[in-house]
Amino acid sequence: MIPSTLTSALLTFNENVTRLNRFLQLARTLDLSDAETLQLKQEFYWQVTSDGVNKFRDVAIAKQPTLEFDPLELFKEITKLQKESEEDYVVEQLGLYHRLRAELTIIQLIAMVDGYRTDATTLLFQKKTASLIKHKSDIVKLLSDVSSPLNWNDLYEDIIRVAVSNMTRNIKYRGWIEKIKNEFSLTPTLVPLDVDQFEEIIATRNLLAHNGCIVSQDYIDRSDAYYRHTGQVMLPIGSQRLVDQNYCTNAIQCISRVLQAIDLEVYRVTI
């Protein structure tokens, strides 16, 4: 068996990406069931009030003024308009259904990235224990907060955990990359555009998870380099950040490239 040149952190990430890609492939073919479609149609009719029926009536008469004097034909035309509106409603809801799948994919993808960052940083500290001294004050605080005796294994895990938290907490991924490069003498070969896109993907995830998909100043600040690099027009504050399946596929590919480049260096210094 040929030995792997990937760290355990990237092996785990790759396994999860395989599952996520499989989900995306299935999502292309999955559709609403007949029961779900029927429920949407029922929801549509629940929302149609007497005012709504009157609007259909007004539209029908505006198109064919003579219908006002022909109740049977007017009823047929109103029914036809309702049917068309019902179909439009189902299509609209189906679009939301597909968009939700894409949004959840991005949220899950970044959760997997967070897992890789924690695992890779842990491997680095376990191998380069001399770097722990830079986190001495927080480690000492941890030890002072321990009320009961710990064995060495538990204590060692806690020490590593504190150092990893210091290295990853409340920091952009670009900043994390710079930290591990400096602290552990890593020299990953990264494509600047990939790093810019990486930050935009994470900024998008933050909008999806925390801001109702509405573009914020934080998104603009974090994504500015990517938009400038690609020549795209920046989304205005208050607009919706919409994602689709193509965006998900490109995001997975970009993030995989970035983590692969980082992992080559993590592997080099931890083997």
Brief synopsis:
By secondary structure, this protein is an all-alpha fold. 76% of the residues lie in helices and 0% in strands. The protein is elongated, with a radius of gyration of 27 Å.
Record the SSE blueprint.
Layout: H1 8-29, H2 34-47, H3 50-63, H4 71-127, H5 136-145, H6 152-168, H7 173-184, H8 192-210, H9 217-230, H10 245-270
Helix pairs in contact: 1-4, 1-10, 2-4, 3-4, 4-6, 4-8, 4-10, 5-6, 8-9, 8-10
Give the key terms.
10 helices, elongated, 76% helix, 271 residues, mainly alpha
What is the beta-strand fraction? under 5%
**Assembly category:** single chain
Low-pLDDT stretches: none
Percentage of residues assigned to helices? over 70%
- Contiguous helical run count: 10
What order do the SSEs take from the amino end to the carboxyl end, as H and E? HHHHHHHHHH
Any idea what the radius of gyration is? 27 Å
Give the total of beta strands.
0
Describe the structure.
The protein is an all-alpha fold and 271 residues long. The chain is 76% helix and 0% strand. It contains ten helices and no strands. The chain has helices at residues 8-29, 34-47, 50-63, 71-127, 136-145, 152-168, 173-184, 192-210, 217-230, 245-270. The longest helix is centred in the middle third of the chain and has 57 residues, at 71-127. It is elongated and about 90 Å long. The two termini are 18 Å apart. The model has no long low-confidence stretch (mean pLDDT 85).
